[in-house]
Structure formats: C-alpha cells, structure tokens
UniProtKB/TrEMBL annotation, chain A:
Its EC number is 1.6.5.9. It is an enzyme of class 1 (oxidoreductase). GO terms for cellular component: plasma membrane. The chain crosses the membrane at residues 6-23, 67-89, 95-117, 129-150, 162-185, 226-243, 249-269, 281-302. GO terms for molecular function: NADH dehydrogenase (quinone) (non-electrogenic) activity. Keywords: Membrane, Oxidoreductase, Transmembrane, Transmembrane helix. It is a multi-pass membrane protein. It is found in: Membrane. This is NADH-quinone oxidoreductase subunit H.
Automatic annotation (TrEMBL), chain B:
It is found in: Cell membrane; Membrane. The keyword Transmembrane applies. It comes from Stygiobacter electus. InterPro entries: ComplexI-like_HydComp, ND/Mrp_TM. The chain crosses the membrane at residues 6-21, 28-46, 66-86, 98-117, 154-181, 201-220, 240-261, 273-292, 304-326, 369-389, 401-420, 447-466. Keywords: Cell membrane, Membrane, Oxidoreductase, Transmembrane, Transmembrane helix. It holds the Pfam family Proton_antipo_M. GO terms for molecular function: oxidoreductase activity. This is Proton-conducting transporter membrane subunit.
UniProtKB/TrEMBL annotation, chain C:
It comes from the Bacteria. The chain crosses the membrane at residues 6-22, 29-46, 52-71, 91-111, 117-137, 142-163, 169-190. This is Hydrogenase. InterPro entries: HyfE-like. One of its GO terms (cellular component) is plasma membrane. The keyword Membrane applies. It comes from Stygiobacter electus. It is found in: Cell membrane. The keyword Translocase does not apply. Keywords: Cell membrane, Membrane, Transmembrane, Transmembrane helix. It is a multi-pass membrane protein.
Length: 303, 485, 210
C-alpha cells in the first residue's frame, strides 16, 4: 500500500521533470541553452493561478472533461510499476483496464474538443481519433505478447515473473521497445507524428484540441499529457526490470538510467527527424503494429 | 586429371588469354583449339575410350557423358561460325562487344562443362548460374534497346528462377536430414541410393522448386518469357548455343532431381507436374504460332515447344524417355542450322518482322533452301532426326496408355506445323516488288552454308545409321533411372 | 541467439516495406549482411578456427562492403532520385507484407510438427524471399528490383543456416561470387539502360512483346 502511494507520487511529481529534461536535451542538441529543466513546473504553477474561461458555446462536457482526464491519468499511473514497488492497483487483467482508461481519456479529449464547436478543434479531434485507431493495436500486440510469455495479465506480475533464462526475452526487449517507443511517440504527440512546439493549426493534432482552454483546465490538460508521457516511458523502462531482479538497488538504477536514456533518445529522435506528412502517419503506425504482430508470432513459435 | 583440365580449366585459361590478347583472330584460334580438344575428349569419353578421374564434386556417368557430347558438338560448330559472324560489319557499337565475345564463350564452355560434370547439387547450382552470367552479356551483342531489354529480363528472371532452384536444393538437403550425414549430403549418387528413405513432403517441395526454378532457364511455360526474349534477340550463334545447349544444362538439373524422385514414392507426383509443364509449353507455342510476327521469336517458341516435348518424354518414361534423349540431341543440332540461317536472313534484311522480310528465295537462294529444309526437319519431316525421336515419344505414350495426352499433343503439333510452315513460306516465297528487281546480286556460298549442310546431313545420318554407341549410352541412362523399355 | 538475429532480419523487412528512400534499401542490405555474418560466426565462438572465419569474412566483404557500395555508386552515377516510386500505396504494401509474414509463420509452424526445423529463422528467411519478390513486382525503379533480388538471396541464405545444411565451403563461396557477379552485371546493364532509355524504370522495358 505504502509502496503504491510512493510510486504514484513519484510518477506524478517526476512527470513535468521528464518533459523538462526532454526539452533541455533537445535545446542542447540543436545548439541552444534552452529553458531550465524545471520549466514545466513553473508553467504549471503559472497556469494554476489563472482564471478559467470557457467558450460560450460549450456545454458541461468541457467542464468535466479536464478533471476526468486528469483523474484517469492518475488512475493509470497507479497501475504501472515503478522500480520494484508494488503499484497501488494490481489485479489480474489490469492491462486491459490500463488500455481502456487511456481510451476513456482520449474519448473525453475528443469529445471536449468537439464540444467547443471550433472547426480547428474538430479537425484535431478527427485526427486524434484516426490515429488512435492505428495506435491501439500496437499496445495490445506488444504488451499482449509480453503477457503471453509471462503467463500473467497484471502489469506488475508480468514484469515481476519473467525469468531471464527464457532465451526469447532479449528479443522481446528489442522488438517490443521499438513498437512501444513508436506508440509513445504517437500517444504523446511527439515528433515525428506531431510537433508539440509549433502552433500551426493545419498540422497539429494534440495541441489543437486544447487551443481554447485556459487557466485551471489547461493546467489539467498539460499535466495529464506530462503524466501520459511518463507512463509510456515507464512501460518502456519496465521491459528492463527483469534484469535487476536480484536486488532492489539495481532496479532503482535501471529506473534512473532508463529515464535518462529515454529522455535523451526522445530528444535525439525529435532533433533528427522532421514531422511526417499526415498521410504517412498511418503506415508509420502500421509498421509498429507489424512489429507487435511479429512479436506475437515469435512467442507462438518460440518453443 | 587431364580430362578435368581439358573440360574446365582449359576453357577458363583460354578466356583468360582472350582477356590479355586483344586480337580477335587470335581469340578465334584459341577458342577453336579449345573446342576441338573438348569435342575430341568428349567423343572419347562418350565411347568409353578414356577413363575419367575427376576431383570431388565432379563425376561422370552415362547421362553427363551424353549431355557433354551434345554441348561440345554445339559449341564446336558455333565457334567455327562465330568468326565469320563477327567479321560482318554491323554497326560501330558492336565493335566493343566483339572484344568480349570469345572470352565469354570460353567462360561459358567452362561453366557449362562444370555444370554437366558435377555430381553435387551445390556445384551444379554454382556452375549453371555461371552459365547464365556468361551468356547474359552475349545477348547484349548488338547493343541496341531490344537486346538490352532482353538481357536484363533474361538475367533477372533466370537469376530469380535459379534462386528458387537453390531453395529446392536446400529442401532436398532437409529431406535427407538424419539420413545422410556430413560431407555426403547433396551428392547425386548418395541421394539416389537413399531415395526411398527421403522425407516425402520435402522431396515434393524440392522437386517443385527445382523444376519451376529451372524452367525459367529451360524455357518451359509459364516461365518461358525471359528465355524467349533472350533467344530471339541474341546474335544467331548465341541463340543456337542457348537453344542447343544452355536449355539442356538446365534440363539436366531437372533430370538429376527426377532421377532421385523415380526411386521414391513421389514419382507419380513429379510425373504429373512435368506433364502439366510440358503440355502448357506446347500450348503456349501453339497459341503463339497463330499470331507470330517475328521469325526469330518463332524459332524461340519452337524451342519452347521442343523442350516441352522432351520434358513430356522424360516424364512418360520408358520408350518415350529414349525418344526424349534422342530428341534433345537432334533438336540441338537442328537449332544450330535454323538459327544460323535466320541470322543470315536477319543480316540481309535488317529486320526480324515477318512482314518486312519477303522473297528470301530470290535474294538468298542457298540460305532460303537450307532454312526451308531445316524448318521442315524441326517440324518432324523424315528423314531427319526429329521425326524419329518424336515417333519414339508417341510410341512410348501409346505403350504407357496415355491416349489423352497423345491426342492433345498431336493436335498441338498439327497446328504448330501448319502455322509455322505458313509463316516460313511467307518469308521465303512471298513476292516483294520493291526488293526483288534492284537486288540481283548472287549470294555467295559461305562457310556457314557448308556447316549447315554438314549438320543437316548429320541430322539425317545419325538416326538412319542406328548408331549403336548412342543407343547403348541411352540404354545405360535408362538403366540409371531404373526404367525399362 | 539465432532467433534473435532472424527477428532483427524480419524487422528489416518491415522497414523495407515502409521506407520511401532508395538509400534505405542499401542500408537494409548492409544490415542484413552483418546479421548473416554474425549468424555464421555464432556456432564457432567457443571453438575458434581459421577455417570457420573465412566464410563470414567473405560475406562481410561481399554483402556488407562491396555490393552496397557498388549500388550506392550506381545511385550516385546515374543520379537516381531518392524516392522509390511504388506502384501501389505503401500502406497496402505493408498490409500485404504483414499478411504474408503471418501466413508464412503459421505454415512453417505447421510444417515443423513433421520435421525438425528452426521455425523462426526458416520463416524469416522465407518472408525475405516473398518480400523480395513483392519488391520486384510492386516497384518501378530497376535499382530497387536489384535490391529486391538481393533481399531474396539473403533470405535463401538465412534458410540455409536455419536448416543447418552443410554446404561445402567451396560451394558457398561460389554462390557468393555468383551473386556478386550478378549484381555487377546488373549494375552495368542499369548503366546502359539509363544511357539508352534515359531512365531506369520498368516502364521503359516495354519493347519486347509477343
């Protein structure tokens, strides 16, 4: 119980830092000094102080959506294991819950974007829905195959039970981490699927949906997107947990090193790639899906 | 070791010499001597007057004895003709390809001999891929768009086909897993000895892959397109070489796997696949003859037809098998004459279209007569060889009670006969007002004509003389395949 | 460990299916060459012998250095545009590839009930053969056809390691040499084609018909 609360707190409070780290590295790679690592915290504090103004055409959906999204993010982050701490919520089949709570968040996001009635937001919503269609199978194929290997269906149990003498596991790490990385990029609207920094409505996906939000609502949206990024990073890192099973110190080390390398990798990818054309994104996602399928195939025929 | 040197190392060395020396006349003399040595040795080997000792991966048995004789026979005549052929002025660009002509020809001889003498599927594969590589640049002799396209297509389809054959070879080694152990895998005789123990599924898969893969090179439908393009656009000696010997090299690979299959339970399966392939190629040739507009292509399709007949004979077994082997010999000789004469016509008229070639008889009387005779010979008119071998194949079909196939083939052959002779008569006899009057220069009697006459005589004499050595050899091949007449 | 390399191999096939650049094909060829060389060295890690090192070294020389460099040179010389010009949508192509890979894996596993077989390397190799053929069918540029042919060859090589067929060294070397010469000749032919037809696409090769 205590472990679960600690891990939840870690996830929530470290998430803006993760985003800040990515931005910092990105700045360094492009030859700038960049904002301080803690900049996301300052921005969140700034936002929380401001007043919320909703569009006059909006209904109650716009009011409740940010809160529900934020709560569902917190809920999801209490499923994911941090290091070897047992998460708050852990039962058989929670990977399904994990996926669908994220789905709920996305649904509300789309709904609230359409609620405002602006054409830009509607466009963003449409894109989000389309790409979500391609992104969902990636999750199920990659995490599903890991679940198959371990024989468990709970996030914590999966990574806690995998034995390293299973020869196939190294393959899974490589194959799965590629597909989950692409998934994370898509879900968190990073490059090359979406560029979080530009404000060009025609090409944006995630940012365009929250154009008309402000103040506390915007704070919740921003914070949820930071948490989401951290959650996917944690999934990626948890593939490496089985290596540190012997002692807890190693587990923590893997966590920290994984966090650092992931932020560097994300920054690197964002620096060296340019945003794909809209029509190329589905096939990019299908590529990740195919990796997931390959993963499942490998599992099935490994024996 | 002398045999290995003459069959393989000497041509290799000759092609190396052709690389150093730049004079085409010297090239020709080198190649000529190599060809003579090769022919003499293969005649000696064929008559069992020379006892061969070959290194590992090479060996000689009755079937390779027979095929290497065909190869060196075709090669010998082609080399003799080649020099005359190269001397013809054609265009500026061709000068460049002349430099590599004999080099590649010698390399072709080396690799083809290696393919025929191999007794290991891996060696066979390497060598037959090398034959493709040596022939491909020769197809591009004229340096024009058509020949370039033909070369590209031939190289591509055949390389892919051969790659498939390699998969088949791998499957064969899978089929012999746990039966043959290290160092003995993929040798023909080991596989034949253990044929009944091989895994049936893999053997079937292997047969399909090897047959389909090599059929790109044999020119069996539906994989014939690259081969037909190449044969119809290559210079005539090369076309003769391809029709007469290169296709048989690929056929040899099919024969090798077929030999293994005959001793196993997959026999009937393999038979039916080969019969389907051969009927398809006969059908393709039959269909093409109706709308043929290019006489070299016509000959290429005639090759498809005859290789189809040979495959059919092999698949039927027994007497038809004997007929098929005779047929491959006669076909190879006949094709030389046909392609050389077609080359003469092409050289004169600068066109391969049937429409633009008229009244050959008036302008090129000798060539015209020889072309007519050789066409009649290839269509199965006695006293030329093709007639006798086809009769044997039909007899074999009757004996094995395959009336249905016989009827189908008779039907196809009848229409091929009618249509092909119609097209050829159009070339030979149709009057052309523009051409005939101002072109009265008498055709000179050249070496090519002499050779063609000799080959035609050979074609008539071999079946009539009932040559015993050939018959004995074919019987021993039959024995190797476990068949009886 | 064999499985590990063959899965990376299949991953490279998926990459081939989505990439838009000609150069990416060359890098994939290089990558596959490295994988094949590693696969060959693998059984000999603990019992080192000079005999065992010859073949992997030749593979590195031919498949990793010579052929990709040669193709790169052709691309540079002929000034081939970097886009690949597919004849069908990349998305459809990728779906076709995925479907075929799934079917191949399933079939291989069915077959492997019958005979002892390394499923994953075998299926990956076979997928490479199929993908190579698809590349030849669904692409316009001739240089990509050459790449497709080479991917096909790599697949065959992978199969031959999967079924542990003991082809004699001399013959393996002969095969590699043959493949290299094929690519070399194809390169020359490509040069000629770009001279004669002023282009290097399949659509130019339409002169020969029945």
């Amino acid at each position: 119980m205590l472990e679960g609360i600690i891990s939840l707190i870690i996830v929530i409070f470290i998430s803006p830092l993760f985003a800040g780290m990515i931005n910092k590295y990105k700045a360094i790679f492009t030859g700038r000094i960049g904002a301080p690592v803690f900049q996301p915290y300052y921005e969140l504090i700034r936002l929380i102080k401001k007043e919320t103004i909703n569009a006059s055409s909006s209904s109650f959906v716009s009011k409740i959506a940010p809160i529900i999204i934020f709560l569902s993010m917190i809920f999801v982050s209490s499923i994911i294991p941090v290091g070897f701490l047992k998460p708050l919520i852990s039962f058989n089949g929670d990977i399904i819950l994990f996926a669908y709570i994220l789905g709920l968040a996305r649904f509300l996001q789309i709904l609230s974007a359409m609620d405002i009635g602006s054409s830009f937001e509607g466009m963003g919503a449409a894109r989000e829905a389309t790409f979500a269609l391609f992104a969902e199978p990636i999750f199920f194929f990659s995490i599903g195959s890991i679940a198959f290997i371990s024989g468990h269906t709970s996030m914590y149990e999966i990574f806690n039970s995998i034995l390293l003498n299973n020869i196939g596991y190294e393959i899974f790490i490589i194959v799965c981490s590629i597909s989950v990385f692409i998934l994370a990029i898509t879900e968190c609207s990073r490059m090359p699927v979406d560029d979080p920094n530009t404000h060009l409505e025609l090409t944006m996906i995630h940012e365009v949906m929250i154009l008309d939000n402000s103040g506390f609502d915007l704070f919740l949206y921003q914070f949820s997107s930071y948490i989401k990024l951290t959650i996917y990073a944690l999934i990626e890192i948890s593939f490496f947990y089985p290596f540190g099973k012997q002692n807890h110190f190693l587990g923590i080390l893997i966590f920290i090193v994984g966090f650092l390398t992931l932020s560097i990798t994300l920054a690197l990818v964002e620096t060296i790639t340019s945003r794909y054309k809209m029509k190329l994104i589905p096939q990019y996602l299908l590529f990740a899906t195919s990796i997931g399928i390959l993963n499942l195939l490998i599992y099935t025929f490994m024996k | 070791m002398l045999d290995f040197t003459i069959f393989i190392l000497l041509p290799l060395f000759a092609s190396f010499l052709c690389y150093i020396v730049k004079n085409i006349k010297i090239h020709f003399f080198i190649s000529f001597f190599v060809a003579i040595f090769h022919l003499v040795l293969s005649l000696l080997v064929f008559n069992k007057l020379y006892h061969t000792i070959l290194p590992t991966y090479f060996g000689i048995d009755s079937i390779s004895r027979f095929f290497i004789l065909i190869l060196s026979n075709v090669y010998f005549w082609v080399v003799i003709v080649s020099y005359n052929y190269l001397k013809r002025p054609y265009s500026e660009k061709v000068e460049e390809s002349k430099k590599y002509y004999f080099l590649l020809l010698n390399f072709y001889l080396a690799s083809n001999s290696a393919a025929m003498l191999s007794n290991h599927f891996g060696m066979y594969w390497v060598a037959s891929e090398a034959t493709t590589l040596s022939v491909a640049p020769l197809i591009y002799y004229y340096r024009n768009e058509e020949s370039l396209e033909a070369m590209w297509k031939y190289m591509f389809t055949v390389s892919i086909g051969i790659a498939f054959a390699f998969i088949g070879i791998l499957f064969l080694s899978l089929a012999s897993k746990n039966i043959l152990y290290d160092g003995r895998q993929l040798f023909y005789w080991e596989l034949i000895k253990n044929a009944s123990k091989l895994n049936t599924i893999w053997l079937k898969a292997s047969f399909i892959f090897i047959f389909v893969g090599l059929s790109t090179k044999i020119g069996i439908a539906p994989m014939h397109s690259g081969d037909v393009d190449a044969t119809s656009n290559a210079p005539s000696p090369i076309a003769a070489l391809m029709s007469g010997s290169l296709r048989l090299t690929a056929l040899l690979g099919v024969l090798r796997i077929f030999q293994i299959v005959t001793f196993s339970s997959t026999y009937s399966f393999a038979k039916s696949i080969m019969i389907i392939g051969s009927l398809l190629s006969l059908f393709v040739a039959f269909a093409y003859m109706f709308k043929a507009n290019n006489y070299k292509r016509l000959l290429a399709y005639s090759s498809v037809e005859h290789l189809g007949i040979i495959t059919l004979g092999i698949a039927t077994g027994g007497l038809a098998f004997v007929g098929a082997l005779y047929h491959s010999l006669y076909n190879s000789i006949n094709k030389i004459v046909l392609f050389l004469m077609a080359g003469n016509i092409h050289y004169k008229y600068k066109s391969r279209e049937i429409e633009s070639v008229k009244s050959v008889f008036k302008n090129l009387p000798i060539t015209g007569w020889l072309f007519l005779i050789s066409v009649l010979a290839i269509l199965g008119i006695p006293p030329f060889g093709i007639f006798f071998s086809e009769i044997k194949i039909f007899e074999g079909l009757i004996i094995s009670n395959q009336w249905f196939i016989l009827v189908a083939i008779m039907f196809f052959l009848l229409f091929i006969f009618v249509n092909m002779s119609k097209k050829v008569f159009e070339i030979l006899f149709k009057e052309d007002d523009l051409f005939s009057n101002n072109y009265v220069k008498k055709e000179k009697f050249e070496l090519i004509h002499l050779i063609s006459i000799m080959l035609l005589i050979m074609l008539a004499v071999i079946p009539l003389s009932f040559s015993n050595t050939i018959y004995q050899n074919i019987l021993s091949i039959l024995n190797d395949f476990g068949m009886k007449i | 460990m064999e499985n590990f390399f063959s899965i990376l191999f299949s991953l490279s096939l998926f990459y081939v299916a989505i990439t838009f650049r000609v150069k990416a094909y060359v890098s994939v060829l290089r990558f596959q060459g490295i994988l094949l060389a590693l696969l060959l060295i693998l059984p000999f890690i603990f019992k080192f012998s000079i005999y065992a090192i010859i073949l992997p070294l030749t593979i590195v020389l031919i498949k990793v250095i010579l052929i990709p460099n040669y193709i790169n040179k052709i691309i540079l010389d002929l000034d081939i545009k970097r886009k690949i010009d597919p004849t069908i949508q990349q998305l459809t192509f990728l779906i076709i590839v995925i479907a075929s890979v799934i079917i191949i894996f399933l079939l291989t596993s069915i077959i492997s009930n019958n005979i002892e077989l390394n499923v994953i390397p075998f299926a990956s190799g076979f997928s490479a053969i199929v993908v190579g053929i698809y590349l030849i069918i669904f692409r316009k540029k001739l240089i990509i056809h050459v790449c497709g042919f080479l991917i096909l060859e790599n697949g065959i090589f992978l199969i031959s390691t999967a079924i542990a067929s003991e082809l004699p060294m001399m013959i393996e070397l002969g095969i590699l040499l043959d493949v290299f010469v094929v690519v070399f000749l194809m390169g020359i032919a490509l040069n000629r084609i770009s001279d004669t037809f002023e282009g290097f696409e399949v659509s130019h090769l339409r002169r020969l018909k029945d």
